[in-house]
Amino acid sequence: MPVKNAFYAQSGGVTSVINASASAVIQTAKKYPDQIGKVYAGKNGILGALREELYDTSKETDECLEALTHTPGGAFGSCRYKLKSLEDNRAEYERLIEVFKAHDIGYFFYNGGNDSADTCLKVSQIAEKMGYPLQAIHVPKTVDNDLPITDCCPGFGSVAKYVAVSTLEAGADVASMAETSTKVFIIEVMGRHAGWIAAAGGLANTDIILFPEVPFEKAKFIEAVDSAVKTQGHCIIVASEGAQDAEGNFLADAGTVDAFGHKQLGGVAPTIASMIREELGLKYHWALADYLQRSARHLSSKSDLDHAIAVGQKAVEYAIEGQNAVMPAIIRTGNNPYTWEIQSAPLDQIANVEKMLPAEYIREDGYGITEEARTYLKALIAGEAVTPWKDGLPVHAKLEGVLIDKKLADWSSN
Amino acid sequence: MPVKNAFYAQSGGVTSVINASASAVIQTAKKYPDQIGKVYAGKNGILGALREELYDTSKETDECLEALTHTPGGAFGSCRYKLKSLEDNRAEYERLIEVFKAHDIGYFFYNGGNDSADTCLKVSQIAEKMGYPLQAIHVPKTVDNDLPITDCCPGFGSVAKYVAVSTLEAGADVASMAETSTKVFIIEVMGRHAGWIAAAGGLANTDIILFPEVPFEKAKFIEAVDSAVKTQGHCIIVASEGAQDAEGNFLADAGTVDAFGHKQLGGVAPTIASMIREELGLKYHWALADYLQRSARHLSSKSDLDHAIAVGQKAVEYAIEGQNAVMPAIIRTGNNPYTWEIQSAPLDQIANVEKMLPAEYIREDGYGITEEARTYLKALIAGEAVTPWKDGLPVHAKLEGVLIDKKLADWSSN
Asked: Which domains does chain B have, with CATH numbers?
């Protein structure tokens, strides 16, 4: 087998551990010098391939590549760029293959979520059709936790830990002051389509979780808040950004307008805070964690980091074994203690399939999680993925970022 | 000297390390059994004294009291309850003395910020006037960092660390995706009156800090955002909740109304996000850390924790030495390495004096911090105050919370 170079790219929303997968891909590839030459990383994801902007990762020190395991964000740049269908933009796929050919790339490692799995599959298919030998391996990553087959997605466990820890801490704060101050605290978390992240609130002292899966009923909700405050003096709410009513209207789109009369996407937290003020007149505070939750590498879970590294390593091993159009999936083999292994899963069973939060994970009243969900989630937030610190701040990798020389004409999207 | 009991109470907004001060007071008191009998902690702060609701801390195990050093919130309950002036409500102060007398309390340790320092001083004065022997010691605590004489206030260093770390992490996330996604990220932080907390954003990769001290100028601000995005592709903004224009109008009160036409206190972050959308049409995200920042014990700084413990210990030692109406102040004695000591400061020089962010800490353009500020802040975020973890979550103290029997008639406020 001739030595071929590899291409690696990060796709879509980044996570606190996506760079750990990058590091694993790059470092594992070095173990197979007879098969893999250089690993080129796309600058800003797949755009880097289209634009022929490729970082030569062999220019990075081992120390720096190791530091990637504790660096949040996407070290090589990620992008939200969905390749069109083969029919709609065959030229784009052909350009990819042209770039791969120019740089002798035989391995395509694509680190992303649902859309990326689809892209990875298509790249594999077009290469085959064009007679270009390419092994396309998808490396899973998404805080949305919605990839099928795999028990969980790298990136999710750390967000779950962030939500559980933050809610626990802020909940302790609120509980201690509720007598004379804030009685209702709302933390809004990510998850437009599914309540995976919101569910993590159930690991803390949360009274009410608002899932996208459970239609929001104002009267019932207000009663639940009132009851919590009357019983224990305060109420802690974890609200998914995707919370919606029975008609599918997002609570975040509650018709708020700014001073100029423009519609505001105000967020779920302020919307339900207003309801609570109007209906119950209670003092509230709310937090919107936004990117903080998915970038909080200082709070990543050890489980999640281990998964992120393992899928990166296995992706390379699968490539060496000759596999194509597959994804390393995390398979849970036990809960007490939590055990897992990596298995190869075919991409055509993954692309465009969304794994939703199972109904049996949601408590009967719709405001909490079940024991089954707790067992599932506990494993994923377990352990602390310690990061090195310097001068009070976490140490992050500083890449050299050396782009290789271009060999082709500039690419223009159309 | 006869053995007297001690009263300890938490006051105002809690911090991630206020319980460490509580632990230090209680444990240090045990070293002086010939002077201090029991330490009673007020349930919900000073209200506990007024209502004669006193926790007997001798019922707590050493293990639990030690665990307080890594427990956020106010373990005994805090309150926002400002005692009126002596003239307006002498009865309230007399009630305090009555309760202290009933339970043989000779030491008053009050753990709070500016208002509490004033209360502590007044309690000391009324005791003297009434001929009741009481030593009142204020234990400093406030994330606002606005107490005079002391170099910093326990609670602040950890919030500063939270803001710096969160901004660093989210900034890495945004930087990696800016090409095709979010270009402007705003994190809103606490500090209605002073920019101490916002200043901590200057320790991270922040492009623009909005201080309450610097009048907001929309055109200049929009230009700065535009310039950052044009230069590096993205812009990271740390905005103080107290950001305001030259006329003193808070940006948070920008006239946003909800679906019912009610005025919304929308927050600074969404307000300036709207501006950026309207003026520059850039994609943005924003976060509002709210209580998360002041309760994040998992991210507390070692400096801050050390300070919180030291002021608790010294408060008791000052009491034993016979001091009254004083506060242990943190005095910086060196910067490289950071060294400090505790000195006794008279409360009449502290009560009702607010220490503002020095003008020389703010960069000339008004959007960043100076080297002097960096030196000041770096010392306070230094070190990690490690907490124990179990099952993926931080371990917090669970107090027995045993209230002592009441001896007096119920108290009714008027």
From this structure: 4-142+300-352+387-394 (3.40.50.450), 156-295 (3.40.50.460)
